[in-house]
Design goal:
Layout lengths: L1 E3 L2 E4 L2 H8 L2 E2 L2 E3 L9 H14 L1 E3 L5 H13 L5 E3 L28 H10 L4 E2 L11 H6 L8 H11 L8 H11 L2 H12 L5
Parallel strand pairs: 1-3, 2-4, 2-5, 5-6
Antiparallel strand pairs: 1-7
């Protein structure tokens, strides 16, 4: 179990149950899209964010990103840290059918995948050395051909597909998610490997 300074924001009850066994921190549910109209919950999240910061962990489907973006609109950016989970196909054990987009949610991931994503995020882990290697920047994206080039969009999609990250991320969101999943050196290796497979 890892202990966090930040409170964790998740979508639902089963996500909370899953993370409660892995993370020592307050875990707040948005109750899915109900957060959009729940002024009391919004106020609570803002207060918690101001006091200790929040770490947002949503599913890696489009609904998860809608909720993530909504929270970014109601909480100061400086109080938010992001944790992106891998986008993996599958079905949660308690469900009869896969989700609409066919991806595993937070509750369906292996413990190791979740802990790796949290450790690679910018969350403050209490009692561990959380110093990170150099972060990936827009300048790195340019150097690697992921922005500012004719085929940059296609190159970004190849990297996102390789890492099982949603391909509809904006460039800024992609940089943030990569900084939670890989180091700059690992990204360079991935791009080099994909270039060998005709990524230009």
């Amino acid at each position: 179990m890892i202990r966090l300074k930040e409170a964790v924001i998740v979508e639902g009850r089963y996500d909370k149950i899953k993370l409660s066994a892995l993370i020592d921190a307050p875990i707040i549910e948005t109750n899915g899209f109900r957060i959009f109209k729940d002024k009391e919950k919004q106020s609570l999240i803002r207060q918690i964010a101001e006091k200790r910061g929040i770490l947002i962990i949503t599913d890696s489907d489009s609904a998860g990103f809608v909720i993530r973006n909504f929270l970014k609109g109601i909480v100061k950016e400086s109080d938010i840290k992001q944790c992106y989970i891998p986008q993996l196909r599958g079905k949660e054990k308690r469900k009869e059918k896969p989700s609409k987009e066919g991806f595993l949610g937070v509750e369906g991931l292996d413990d190791e995948d979740i802990l790796r994503a949290v450790r690679n995020s910018s969350a403050t882990i209490i009692g561990e050395n959380t110093a990170k290697s150099a972060e990936i920047t827009k300048a790195d994206f340019y150097d690697l051909g992921l922005t500012g080039r004719e085929n940059s969009k296609g190159n970004r999609e190849k990297v996102l597909n390789f890492l099982n990250i949603p391909t509809y991320l904006s460039t800024n969101a992609m940089i943030t998610s990569l900084n939670t999943l890989v180091t700059l050196e690992e990204l360079k290796d991935i791009v080099k490997n994909l270039q060998g497979n005709k990524m230009k």
